[in-house]
Amino acid sequence: MRKVLAAAPLLLLPVVAYNLLALTLAGGFESTAANARLTAPLFELRTAPGGLWPVSIADLLLVA
Fold first, then answer.
1. What CA–CA distance (Å, rounded) separates 1 from 45?
2. How far is residue 16's CA from residue 10's CA, in Å, rounded to a whole number?
3. Rounded Cα–Cα distance for residues 43 and 45 (Å)
4. Contact 35, 18 (CB under 8 A)
5. How many other C-beta atoms lie within 10 A of the C-beta of residue 37?
6. C-alpha span between 29 and 11 (Å, rounded)
7. Fewer CB within 10 Å, N or C, the chain?
8. Are 53 and 44 in contact (CB under 8 A)?
9. CB–CB of 25/14 below 8 Å?
10. pLDDT at res. 56
11. pLDDT by residue (tens digit) across 5-63?
12. Predicted pLDDT at 28
């Protein structure tokens, strides 16, 4: 139980990172502007079958 409670503050880091990104983007927390900016492709990676994966800020937040 102590390990679960010790990890709880670490769960706040992604939430804080997302909120800072959404707040500093144009439009603030307005869902359409924030969603468009977070899902805009930053770069593309080639996948094993030969397709392209457009990586966005939202993908990088999930990886982190």
1. 40
2. 10
3. 7
4. no
5. 17
6. 21
7. N
8. yes
9. no
10. 92
11. 777 777 788 788 877 877 776 666 666 777 787 789 999 999 998 899 999 988 887 78
12. 63
Q: Which two tokens stand for residue 55?
A: 């990586």
Structure tokens at 57: 């800020």
Q: How many residues does the chain have?
A: 64
Q: Contact, 56 vs 39, CB < 8 A?
A: yes
Tokens 């992604």 sit at which residue?
Answer: 14
The token pair at 44 is 């593309």
Say if residue 56 is exposed, middle or buried (CB neighbours under 10 Å; 0-12, 13-18, 19+): middle
Nearest to 62 by CA among 10, 4, 17: 17
Residue 8 CA: distances (Å) to CA of 1, 48, 49: 11, 36, 38
